[in-house]
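Input chain follows. Return structure tokens only.
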Amino acid sequence: MTPTGRDAVMVDRDDLGVATISINRPDRMNALDHPTVCALVEIISEQSLDPDTRVIVLAGEGGAFTTGADLQAIRDGAGTDEAPSPEATMTSAAELVRAVLTAPVPVIAAVNGPAAGVGVSLALASDLVLMSDDAYLLFAFTNIGLMPDGGASVLLPAAVGRSVASRMLLRGDAVAAAEAQQVGLALDVLPAADLRPAAATLARRLARGPRRALELTKKSVTGATLAELDAALAREHEGQCELLVSDDFAEGVASILEKRRPDFS
């Protein structure tokens, strides 16, 4: 059975206080069901507020970073008491991004494969992004009848500008690692075997730095570039709650699981 909740998240902290938080659902390409998103929020918050933590590294086990929402879990749970409401889904996505952005320590995303949907938001919310050369960012929201969420509607334009962000989001593009680096979404692109060691080296370099100075630097940069975060999350919440119960989203989920083109209304 695929682990869920805290069982789906691995945590390791080294002697310098580098906490590596890994999503461990490789049989689902680390797709996130609601309990796992909630667990990630809790664990990131716990680790970031621990005075012994100096840096956080976010990673995915197996061949993916995270492919976003677990569409199989959504379809299996549709109409049942276990299915989270659209409001709960949007609230947890916003809390996940906030947990990363407000962490008082630097957060590094080690993107080792596909990052899609809210998985892209998780990477973009991180302070530094490293990618393996076979990884990509998939802005898949419109491909399944949804709009960007997890703050992607402000995180992406803040990083690449309105024109490039509109292209990526409206077309549902997959952005290869090389292009991600070119437009400023990734700090570095490395062979897959070198990604985790490179992330560890960068994290340990930061861990040796002045914790309070790094915290205030991060806070200042976030405040300067993401002043519209609250408004963006509110817009995403309202719009996505409408779309999550739409026929187009149901068709988008079905088309992905059935490996066919969607037929939107």
